[in-house]
Amino acid sequence: MIRYINCFRKLPDMSIEDFRDYWQGAEFDDLIKRMAELSGARRYNKNLTLRVSMGEHLISDRGLAQPYDGIVEYYWNNANHLAGVYQTDTAVALGRQIQRYQSQFIDLANSTAFFTEYEE
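^ thats the sequence. predicted structure below, dont judge the formating
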């Protein structure tokens, strides 16, 4: 199985509460769901990072960077079809719509995305 992981950081001048309001909004849920359906994803997840003392302790002890604020994941049995899907007019328009929405609360320049192999 192929997994696409998108790790997001909030805009630097935005409070975590405001970020979470955008993240948990119905519009973002709809956009993520529409992209999953369009791409034929087997499943998808949208998760916020927990801000808990144990996490902060591990970060401090290991000298790690601060965690991302949220992640979105999509899963496919194989991803050979994705190049064709993302070149369609529908996908291009949806991608622009997602990027416009995300630009209101996500620091895209300091976020990242990548594909992995996922074994069930």
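Strands lie at 2-8, 43-48, 70-76, 112-117.
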